[in-house]
Design a protein that fits this description.
257 residues; alpha/beta; 2-enoyl-CoA Hydratase, Chain A, domain 1; Lyase 2-enoyl-coa Hydratase, Chain  A, domain 2; 2 domains; six-stranded mixed β-sheet; 10 helices
Length: 257
């Protein structure tokens, strides 16, 4: 699948989804957001993991302000909810998503990155939330997802003061889990996606759909949800075979990194 906004390349069990508006620094138009939704809602059953990256020098420089139009409160509400539904198709979609970050990860670009399950940043990456200085507020789920990565106080600081985090400080505070040399984020993200694709599908599903909800539940509810998910996962035939392989010495043991 290739459109004017997005490219989809299936490489074995991994789908590589590339934002394709380099002249606009991959700024998010409504058509691009809807294209992302459609891609993740219609991935082939053979896909087990996905990588999302951006063509050109930047991952995503945020909202395409040329599309910003005057809306009344009701129209603004529905527009924001459209973005929510689209990005939920990544976060709570069929497969884990690894973001390959480089250059600008700004505004809506950071909202998009925060909807992914793993973020790999290269040393050219920088993060910002300029909505505060533009008289607007995040509307693509950032007010929920970003504080869960870095805390509400750090997000408020970014929006109040225009603070920009470089790649090293972004990794330190939790905006990315991996930091790699400039130009290698896509390669590392694909390597991780291949590894993720080898996991049992039900385990990946639990990590995508159950774990975030367990983390938000009171402890007693979280323990019950965990027990239910553990019981379901270990009952799968593939899980039973993997445990047998380990017990019989046919599976690799964990080694020191």
């Amino acid at each position: 699948m290739t459109t004017k906004d997005i490219q989809l390349d299936i490489r074995g069990a991994v789908a590589v989804v590339r934002l394709s508006r380099p002249a606009k620094r991959n700024a998010l138009s409504d058509s691009l957001v809807l294209a992302l939704r459609d891609v993740f809602q219609n991935l082939p059953d053979t896909v087990r993991a996905a990588v999302i990256d951006g063509e050109g020098e930047h991952f995503c420089a945020g909202l395409d302000l040329s599309e910003l139009k005057e809306r009344d409160a009701g129209q603004g509400l529905h527009h924001s909810r459209m973005w929510h539904a689209a990005l939920e198709s990544l976060q709570y979609g069929p497969v884990p998503v690894i973001a390959a970050l480089h250059g600008a990860v700004v505004g809506g670009g950071l909202e998009l990155a925060s909807a992914c399950h793993i973020r790999v940043a290269d040393e050219s990456t920088f993060y910002a939330l300029p909505e505060g200085s533009r008289g607007i507020f995040v509307g693509g789920g950032g007010a929920v997802r970003i504080p869960r990565l870095i805390g509400a106080a750090r997000m408020a600081d970014m929006m109040l003061t225009g603070r920009v985090y470089n790649a090293q400080d972004g990794e330190r505070i939790g905006l990315a889990q991996y930091l790699v040399p400039t130009g290698t984020a896509s390669e590392k993200a694909f390597e991780l996606a291949q590894r993720v694709a080898e996991n049992a599908p039900l385990t990946n599903y639990a990590l995508m759909h159950a774990l975030p909800r367990i983390a938000e539940q009171p402890a007693d509810q979280g323990f019950l949800t965990e027990a239910l998910m553990a019981a379901i996962a270990q009952s799968a035939p593939e899980a039973k075979e993997r445990v047998r392989a380990f017990l019989e010495g046919r599976a690799n043991k964990v080694k020191k990194a």
